[in-house]
Design brief:
The complex is a heterodimer of chains A (242) and B (48).
Chain A: H1 9-41, H2 55-82, H3 85-117, H4 125-146, H5 150-177, H6 198-241
Helix pairs in contact in A: 1-6, 2-3, 2-5, 2-6, 3-4, 3-6, 4-5
Chain B: H1 8-44
Classes of the chains: A mainly alpha (242), B mainly alpha (48).
Protein backbone atom coordinates (compact mmCIF):
# COMPACT_ATOMS: atom_id res chain seq x y z
CA UNK A 1 0.00 0.00 0.00
CA UNK A 2 1.30 3.45 -0.90
CA UNK A 3 1.88 6.09 1.78
CA UNK A 4 -0.14 8.52 -0.37
CA UNK A 5 -3.30 6.57 0.44
CA UNK A 6 -3.14 8.18 3.89
CA UNK A 7 -3.63 11.52 2.16
CA UNK A 8 -7.26 10.45 1.82
CA UNK A 9 -8.99 12.30 4.71
CA UNK A 10 -11.31 9.40 5.59
CA UNK A 11 -8.45 6.93 5.71
CA UNK A 12 -6.39 9.37 7.78
CA UNK A 13 -9.20 9.79 10.32
CA UNK A 14 -9.67 5.99 10.53
CA UNK A 15 -5.94 5.51 11.22
CA UNK A 16 -5.94 8.40 13.69
CA UNK A 17 -8.88 6.97 15.66
CA UNK A 18 -7.00 3.67 15.95
CA UNK A 19 -3.56 4.96 16.99
CA UNK A 20 -4.35 8.00 19.15
CA UNK A 21 -5.45 6.08 22.29
CA UNK A 22 -2.23 4.01 22.20
CA UNK A 23 -0.03 7.02 21.55
CA UNK A 24 -1.74 9.01 24.31
CA UNK A 25 -1.19 6.34 26.95
CA UNK A 26 2.38 5.74 25.83
CA UNK A 27 3.12 9.48 25.96
CA UNK A 28 1.58 9.78 29.43
CA UNK A 29 3.63 6.87 30.78
CA UNK A 30 6.89 8.09 29.20
CA UNK A 31 6.39 11.66 30.44
CA UNK A 32 5.45 10.65 33.98
CA UNK A 33 8.43 8.27 34.20
CA UNK A 34 10.90 10.62 32.46
CA UNK A 35 9.95 13.84 34.24
CA UNK A 36 9.52 12.03 37.57
CA UNK A 37 12.95 10.44 37.15
CA UNK A 38 14.53 13.76 36.22
CA UNK A 39 12.86 15.72 39.00
CA UNK A 40 13.10 13.27 41.91
CA UNK A 41 16.09 11.00 41.32
CA UNK A 42 18.79 12.76 39.30
CA UNK A 43 21.81 13.73 41.45
CA UNK A 44 23.38 17.17 41.48
CA UNK A 45 25.85 17.90 38.69
CA UNK A 46 29.30 19.30 39.31
CA UNK A 47 28.93 22.49 37.28
CA UNK A 48 25.19 23.06 37.40
CA UNK A 49 24.25 21.85 40.88
CA UNK A 50 20.59 20.76 40.99
CA UNK A 51 19.62 23.13 38.20
CA UNK A 52 20.59 20.23 35.89
CA UNK A 53 17.05 18.96 36.51
CA UNK A 54 15.74 21.73 34.25
CA UNK A 55 17.25 20.02 31.18
CA UNK A 56 14.45 17.41 31.34
CA UNK A 57 11.92 20.03 30.29
CA UNK A 58 14.23 22.41 28.43
CA UNK A 59 16.12 20.08 26.06
CA UNK A 60 13.10 18.04 24.83
CA UNK A 61 10.99 21.17 24.28
CA UNK A 62 13.83 22.90 22.41
CA UNK A 63 14.45 19.84 20.23
CA UNK A 64 10.75 19.53 19.48
CA UNK A 65 10.45 23.24 18.64
CA UNK A 66 13.10 22.84 15.92
CA UNK A 67 12.07 19.41 14.64
CA UNK A 68 8.38 20.27 14.46
CA UNK A 69 9.28 23.08 12.06
CA UNK A 70 11.25 20.55 9.98
CA UNK A 71 8.17 18.27 9.95
CA UNK A 72 6.07 21.27 8.85
CA UNK A 73 8.61 21.93 6.08
CA UNK A 74 8.22 18.36 4.77
CA UNK A 75 4.40 18.59 4.95
CA UNK A 76 4.49 21.99 3.23
CA UNK A 77 6.65 20.62 0.42
CA UNK A 78 4.22 17.71 -0.01
CA UNK A 79 1.39 20.26 -0.30
CA UNK A 80 3.26 22.45 -2.78
CA UNK A 81 4.34 19.52 -4.96
CA UNK A 82 1.47 17.02 -4.69
CA UNK A 83 -1.42 19.21 -3.44
CA UNK A 84 -2.53 16.77 -0.73
CA UNK A 85 -4.82 18.72 1.61
CA UNK A 86 -4.10 16.47 4.59
CA UNK A 87 -0.40 17.40 4.49
CA UNK A 88 -1.19 21.13 4.57
CA UNK A 89 -3.59 20.58 7.47
CA UNK A 90 -1.00 18.43 9.29
CA UNK A 91 1.49 21.30 9.02
CA UNK A 92 -1.11 23.69 10.46
CA UNK A 93 -1.93 21.21 13.24
CA UNK A 94 1.74 20.82 14.14
CA UNK A 95 2.38 24.58 14.28
CA UNK A 96 0.30 25.06 17.45
CA UNK A 97 2.29 22.34 19.19
CA UNK A 98 5.55 23.84 17.92
CA UNK A 99 4.60 27.26 19.25
CA UNK A 100 3.97 25.88 22.74
CA UNK A 101 7.26 23.93 22.63
CA UNK A 102 9.13 27.10 21.64
CA UNK A 103 7.55 29.08 24.48
CA UNK A 104 8.46 26.27 26.88
CA UNK A 105 12.06 26.18 25.64
CA UNK A 106 12.45 29.96 25.88
CA UNK A 107 10.89 30.09 29.34
CA UNK A 108 12.81 27.17 30.86
CA UNK A 109 16.00 28.48 29.22
CA UNK A 110 15.48 31.87 30.88
CA UNK A 111 14.72 30.27 34.24
CA UNK A 112 17.89 28.19 33.94
CA UNK A 113 19.97 31.09 32.62
CA UNK A 114 19.22 33.42 35.51
CA UNK A 115 21.11 31.43 38.18
CA UNK A 116 23.73 30.04 35.77
CA UNK A 117 24.56 33.12 33.67
CA UNK A 118 23.19 35.78 35.99
CA UNK A 119 20.68 36.99 33.40
CA UNK A 120 17.25 35.92 32.13
CA UNK A 121 18.11 36.80 28.55
CA UNK A 122 21.12 37.54 26.36
CA UNK A 123 21.30 38.33 22.64
CA UNK A 124 23.23 35.12 22.17
CA UNK A 125 23.10 33.47 18.69
CA UNK A 126 21.05 30.48 19.81
CA UNK A 127 18.66 32.45 21.99
CA UNK A 128 18.13 35.08 19.31
CA UNK A 129 17.54 32.53 16.54
CA UNK A 130 15.08 30.77 18.85
CA UNK A 131 13.21 34.02 19.47
CA UNK A 132 12.98 34.51 15.69
CA UNK A 133 11.71 30.94 15.32
CA UNK A 134 9.01 31.79 17.90
CA UNK A 135 8.01 34.84 15.82
CA UNK A 136 7.86 32.65 12.70
CA UNK A 137 5.51 30.24 14.49
CA UNK A 138 3.29 33.20 15.46
CA UNK A 139 3.37 34.56 11.92
CA UNK A 140 2.64 31.15 10.41
CA UNK A 141 -0.47 30.65 12.58
CA UNK A 142 -1.61 34.23 12.05
CA UNK A 143 -1.33 33.80 8.27
CA UNK A 144 -3.48 30.65 8.37
CA UNK A 145 -6.08 32.56 10.38
CA UNK A 146 -5.96 35.67 8.19
CA UNK A 147 -6.45 34.13 4.74
CA UNK A 148 -10.00 32.96 4.10
CA UNK A 149 -9.41 30.73 1.08
CA UNK A 150 -7.91 27.51 2.52
CA UNK A 151 -5.83 26.64 -0.56
CA UNK A 152 -4.38 30.15 -0.77
CA UNK A 153 -3.65 30.00 2.98
CA UNK A 154 -1.90 26.65 2.50
CA UNK A 155 0.20 28.08 -0.36
CA UNK A 156 1.23 31.21 1.54
CA UNK A 157 1.97 29.42 4.81
CA UNK A 158 4.01 26.79 2.95
CA UNK A 159 6.21 29.50 1.47
CA UNK A 160 6.55 31.13 4.90
CA UNK A 161 7.52 27.71 6.28
CA UNK A 162 10.28 27.39 3.65
CA UNK A 163 11.67 30.79 4.65
CA UNK A 164 11.40 30.05 8.38
CA UNK A 165 13.33 26.81 7.92
CA UNK A 166 16.50 28.89 7.71
CA UNK A 167 15.93 29.94 11.33
CA UNK A 168 15.02 26.42 12.42
CA UNK A 169 18.40 25.27 11.08
CA UNK A 170 20.13 28.31 12.62
CA UNK A 171 18.52 27.54 15.99
CA UNK A 172 19.87 24.02 15.84
CA UNK A 173 23.41 24.86 14.73
CA UNK A 174 23.90 28.38 16.10
CA UNK A 175 26.21 27.17 18.85
CA UNK A 176 28.36 25.47 16.20
CA UNK A 177 28.30 28.30 13.62
CA UNK A 178 29.21 31.05 16.08
CA UNK A 179 31.58 30.09 18.82
CA UNK A 180 30.40 32.94 21.03
CA UNK A 181 27.56 33.79 23.37
CA UNK A 182 26.46 32.32 26.66
CA UNK A 183 24.67 29.19 25.51
CA UNK A 184 26.83 26.11 25.94
CA UNK A 185 27.37 23.52 23.17
CA UNK A 186 24.87 20.80 22.34
CA UNK A 187 23.71 18.80 25.37
CA UNK A 188 23.56 15.58 23.39
CA UNK A 189 26.25 14.03 21.24
CA UNK A 190 26.73 10.74 19.43
CA UNK A 191 30.30 10.80 20.71
CA UNK A 192 30.19 8.91 24.03
CA UNK A 193 33.00 11.03 25.50
CA UNK A 194 31.26 14.32 24.69
CA UNK A 195 27.80 13.18 25.70
CA UNK A 196 26.41 13.77 29.20
CA UNK A 197 26.88 11.03 31.82
CA UNK A 198 24.51 8.04 31.74
CA UNK A 199 22.86 9.02 35.00
CA UNK A 200 21.57 12.19 33.29
CA UNK A 201 21.30 10.71 29.79
CA UNK A 202 18.84 7.84 30.41
CA UNK A 203 16.05 9.93 31.99
CA UNK A 204 16.59 12.49 29.23
CA UNK A 205 16.09 9.77 26.61
CA UNK A 206 12.78 8.81 28.25
CA UNK A 207 11.67 12.46 28.29
CA UNK A 208 12.65 12.91 24.64
CA UNK A 209 10.65 9.80 23.69
CA UNK A 210 7.69 11.11 25.71
CA UNK A 211 7.73 14.48 23.95
CA UNK A 212 7.97 12.82 20.51
CA UNK A 213 5.08 10.44 21.19
CA UNK A 214 3.00 13.27 22.69
CA UNK A 215 3.63 15.31 19.54
CA UNK A 216 2.52 12.41 17.32
CA UNK A 217 -0.69 11.95 19.32
CA UNK A 218 -1.43 15.69 19.22
CA UNK A 219 -0.74 15.98 15.50
CA UNK A 220 -3.12 13.11 14.73
CA UNK A 221 -5.84 14.65 16.92
CA UNK A 222 -5.37 18.19 15.65
CA UNK A 223 -5.10 17.17 11.96
CA UNK A 224 -8.31 15.17 12.30
CA UNK A 225 -9.92 18.25 13.87
CA UNK A 226 -8.79 20.44 10.96
CA UNK A 227 -10.16 17.91 8.43
CA UNK A 228 -13.53 17.85 10.21
CA UNK A 229 -13.70 21.65 10.50
CA UNK A 230 -12.93 22.01 6.80
CA UNK A 231 -15.71 19.56 6.03
CA UNK A 232 -18.07 21.55 8.28
CA UNK A 233 -17.15 24.76 6.43
CA UNK A 234 -17.78 23.07 3.06
CA UNK A 235 -21.20 21.83 4.20
CA UNK A 236 -22.09 25.29 5.53
CA UNK A 237 -21.15 26.85 2.18
CA UNK A 238 -23.25 24.26 0.36
CA UNK A 239 -26.25 24.95 2.60
CA UNK A 240 -25.86 28.70 2.14
CA UNK A 241 -25.89 28.30 -1.65
CA UNK A 242 -28.89 25.93 -1.67
CA UNK B 1 15.67 11.29 46.43
CA UNK B 2 14.54 14.84 45.72
CA UNK B 3 17.16 17.43 46.30
CA UNK B 4 16.68 20.87 44.79
CA UNK B 5 19.32 22.82 46.67
CA UNK B 6 19.60 26.56 46.28
CA UNK B 7 17.86 26.54 42.89
CA UNK B 8 14.60 25.04 44.18
CA UNK B 9 12.48 28.02 43.08
CA UNK B 10 13.86 27.98 39.52
CA UNK B 11 13.50 24.20 39.16
CA UNK B 12 9.95 24.19 40.50
CA UNK B 13 8.99 27.15 38.31
CA UNK B 14 10.37 25.43 35.19
CA UNK B 15 8.51 22.17 35.90
CA UNK B 16 5.21 23.77 36.96
CA UNK B 17 5.04 26.08 33.93
CA UNK B 18 6.09 23.30 31.50
CA UNK B 19 3.54 20.84 32.85
CA UNK B 20 0.84 23.53 32.84
CA UNK B 21 1.64 24.33 29.19
CA UNK B 22 1.47 20.64 28.21
CA UNK B 23 -1.82 20.14 30.08
CA UNK B 24 -3.32 23.29 28.50
CA UNK B 25 -2.18 22.19 25.02
CA UNK B 26 -3.64 18.69 25.44
CA UNK B 27 -6.86 20.03 26.98
CA UNK B 28 -7.44 22.64 24.26
CA UNK B 29 -6.65 20.16 21.46
CA UNK B 30 -9.02 17.59 22.97
CA UNK B 31 -11.84 20.11 23.52
CA UNK B 32 -11.51 21.47 19.97
CA UNK B 33 -11.48 17.91 18.57
CA UNK B 34 -14.71 17.07 20.42
CA UNK B 35 -16.37 20.28 19.24
CA UNK B 36 -15.39 19.63 15.60
CA UNK B 37 -16.67 16.04 15.74
CA UNK B 38 -19.96 17.12 17.32
CA UNK B 39 -20.45 19.85 14.70
CA UNK B 40 -19.78 17.47 11.82
CA UNK B 41 -22.00 14.76 13.30
CA UNK B 42 -24.83 17.29 13.65
CA UNK B 43 -24.46 18.42 10.04
CA UNK B 44 -24.01 15.01 8.46
CA UNK B 45 -26.39 13.14 10.76
CA UNK B 46 -29.72 13.93 9.01
CA UNK B 47 -28.26 12.87 5.63
CA UNK B 48 -27.64 9.29 6.74
Amino acid sequence: MSIWEYANPKRFIAVSDRVVPWLSWLAAVLLVVGLGWGFFFVPRAENFEYSVKIIYVHVPSAMMAINIWVMMLVASLVWLIRRHHVSALAARAAAGVGLVMTVMALFTGAVWGQPMWGTWWAWDPRLTSFLILFLFYLGYLALWAAVEDPDAAADLTSVLCLVGSVFAVLSRYAVNFWNQGLHQGATLSLDAEENIADVYWFPLLVCLAGFVVLFLALVFVRTTTEIRLRRVAALQRREAMA
Amino acid sequence: MTGLGEYAAEILLAYVVSIALIVALVGMSWARARRAKRLLDEMEGPRE
